[in-house]
Amino acid sequence: MKSMTETETKIDRISPTKQPSGRPIGHQTWSDLLFIHWQVSPSELSELIPERLNIDTFEGKAWVGLVPFHMSGVRPWWFPPVPGISSFHETNLRTYVHLDGKDPGVWFFSLDASSSLAVRIARWKWKLNYYCSAMQLHRTGRNLRYESERLWPGVIGPGTKIEAEYGDLIGGLDKEIPAGQAVPGTLEHFLTERYFLYAQIDDGPLHQGQVHHKPYPLNEARVIECHERLRKLSNVPQKEDIDHVLFSEGVDVQIYPLKPV
């Protein structure tokens, strides 16, 4: 298993952005997303993902992302949102992968959510490495603060303490692509426009899920303070200096079934 630079240009990164056929099984809204990324060597991550997957790279480099945000309107397609259940905070720690040169997606090292019910369902039905955490998200103007403390399972204690601020929409120079929308082929598109996810419990079968939404509206952003131990807890390389930051107001999301690869 290895990451190959020559594979980058051959991977179809546009088709996954199109709406899948069939009926979605659920709906969600993701908002106040902060995309924090560190650049790492592919070899540092290759042993942390399933054997069937390959590390996806941009110009030969792999990326680790930390993404805190808020989820609302979480519901199956046949039922309305339920107050007190359908809205909660989440933070995911992830990298980017592909399956034999196709279906570029996300591999989650961990996902923290402030809803114990959502955590139990996601661990059981979606086979994802979810943790229940006490979480806070405060937004004042263009300033944002995210905090989390992991509760269960595993090690209890502080997870994240992040302060950031965002600026103007990115882009705007290409007349065919609206300001704020990532241009295909750019690093911003590589890091954010991901529609496949992969999941595997222990040595069980590898599964693939898919989501659909409009392209993220993306803003420039900078991190003022970032203390986190989620990378350490997942044995992910802990490079100190942050390499890339973006913010998004959010998108409405359709969720499609998880299926074995």
Overview of this protein structure:
This protein has about 260 residues and is mainly β. It has one domain: Beta Barrel (Acetoacetate decarboxylase-like), CATH 2.40.400.10. The chain is about 10% helix and about 50% strand. The protein contains four helices and twelve strands. The chain has helices at about 5-10, 115-125, 185-190, 230-235, and strands at about 25-40, 55, 60-75, 90-100, 100-115, 130-140, 145-150, 155-170, 195-200, 205-210, 220-230, 245-260. Strands 1, 2, 3, 4, 5, 6, 7, 8, 9, 10, 11 and 12 form a twelve-stranded mixed beta sheet that branches. β5, α2 (about 115-125) and β6 form a beta-alpha-beta unit. The protein starts with a helix and ends with a strand. The mean pLDDT is about 95.
